[in-house]
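Trying the structure run again after the queue cleared.
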Amino acid sequence: MRYSVLSLLLNGLTGQRGWRPAWREPNPKPAYDVIIVGGGGHGLATAYYLARQHGIRNVAVIEKGYIGSGNAGRNTTIIRSNYLLPGNEPFYEWSMKLWEGLEQELNYNAMVSQRGVLNLYHSDAQRDAYARRGNAMRLHGVDSELLDAEGVRAMYPFLDFANARFPIRGGLLQRRGGTARHDAVVWGYARAADALGVDILQNCEVTGFLSEGDAITGVETTRGPVRAKKVGLAVAGSTSRVAGKAGLRLPIESHVLQAFVSEGLKPLIDGVVTFGAGHFYISQSDKGGLVFGGDIDGYNSYAQRGNLPVIEDVCEGGMALMPRLGRVRLLRHWGGIMDMSMDGSPIIDRTPRPGLYLNAGWCYGGFKATPASGWCFAHLLARDEAHETARAMRLDRFRTGHLIDEKGVGAQPNLH
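Done. Tokens:
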């Protein structure tokens, strides 16, 4: 069924009885051409592009819970491509271009809103760093604007420009950045992949791998063994645990990242704003809640919950940037498990085990990368070669020294 104004009107006249489920609930087949482990945005996007771009439709997406129950449903929904390094910028810009046509391609309202992303700076040195990043973006054909304090004030006059410790001097603006609805992105990719013949297997946990010699030939699941010519891992914060079942030790640590939503308010922030003197970012959802977050908790964990020191740190950053937040009540907060790579950049590559492929290490950048991650991982699985925008995202870069260290803080995942 194609969604349209006409289908909406027709179903309204028939008491909404004509709608069909958005995707099937199939039983596992004995074997597939490709199995994707992980039913989040990246896994579902990979399956969709395998079917759509490469004609590989005998594909299963295996998820231990329900689709979108991991980090896809536990993020702050920001999309952007304002990166500095050649290994990152072309990839995230490709993702931005895919976001811009995603709703038309999937025939699903993912609520993509290009409301702008503004990174504030508070010193001359930070201004120079943002000018460098903006110039690098423009060299790759990406929009960027370096604003002074008056330019920022025209957009957000209620920010604390005269803060004695953190005066706002200006900001780097990408107008094409913004937000998207995380659940809708998952549902849209699931529906589109299912329509092309992909099996989505929910409540089906991978407990091990089938192998012949060193080659991976399938997976053991709670619903029985399933064979495949190729297996792709897209399990975010659970990457180390799942890869460990195949005997792999990866350059990844799992950390908790908390996010927060306030009570619903009248329209206040029409874009995304980040605080340059601390790690704090904020936007406003279509429901009116202020959505914000900050640093990871800084210790290794697989628990989807956080602790009070980070809550305090995030709220301090918010108050320093926007004092009126002190009058707003916090509605809820949650934690997602981040797969933090050693240099803060992702991995899309083959593993040392033939037949096993890896999509991991997304750190803070997972949601915004969803379309390009799926596109490039599907390209790798279909052709056994890296997509041109993901060639630097190799697994062996940590051994060869070809790091993509966007922040320049070295091999310390908790600092990325």
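The longest helix spans residues 89-106. Worth checking whether this holds up in the mutant runs.
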